[in-house]
Design a protein that fits this description.
Largest sheet: 4 strands, antiparallel
Radius of gyration: 26 Å
Distance between the termini: 59 Å
Shape: elongated
Strand content: 15-25%
Structural class: alpha+beta
Length: 154
């Protein structure tokens, strides 16, 4: 019986300790997330306010030499931050400063050095109305962030 009481006391200590640290960890993570959401949603200055992405869809895969020629020439254009071609999807993605370029002008710059047919990706109005194209308005992450943002702003 005494042995059983000793085992129970040790077991009780482990349970209390585990419960304490679990609650502490959960509370800490929740607090960190709330602070992060508050900081992100109340910031008035944006470091990347003029940076945009453009997507160019090619109908067929580009040859290695053509890719190198396009990337080499277009990356040197004023306002182009980066340019990447994915050979698996035949999609070229460019990051640019919208003070110097538009999606259309980046597309035209790529077309100067490409012999393959391509098309500038322009999202339809329904995609533009939604929030993040990855999560969407019906995701749990969007709803939770929106709820926290409303609390902070009220």
């Amino acid at each position: 019986m005494i042995l059983l009481l000793k085992i129970w006391k040790e077991y009780d200590k482990v349970i209390k300790s585990t419960a304490f640290w679990s609650v502490f960890l959960f509370t800490s993570l929740l607090f960190a997330m709330l602070v992060h959401i508050a900081v992100v949603n109340t910031s008035d200055t944006y470091v990347n306010a003029t940076i945009q992405l453009a997507r160019i869809d090619f109908n067929e895969s580009l040859e290695k030499e053509e890719i190198q020629r396009i990337l080499g020439k277009v990356k040197n254009t004023q306002g182009v931050k980066s340019l990447y071609y994915n050979p698996n999807t035949c999609i070229m993605t460019g990051m640019f400063d919208n003070r110097f370029l538009t999606s259309q002008s980046l597309y035209e710059e790529v077309q100067k050095y490409s012999v393959k047919e391509s098309k500038l990706f322009i999202p339809d109005p329904e995609l533009l109305e939604n929030s993040c194209p990855i999560t969407g308005k019906n995701s749990l992450a969007f709803k939770f962030s929106h709820w926290i943002k409303n609390i902070i702003q009220s």
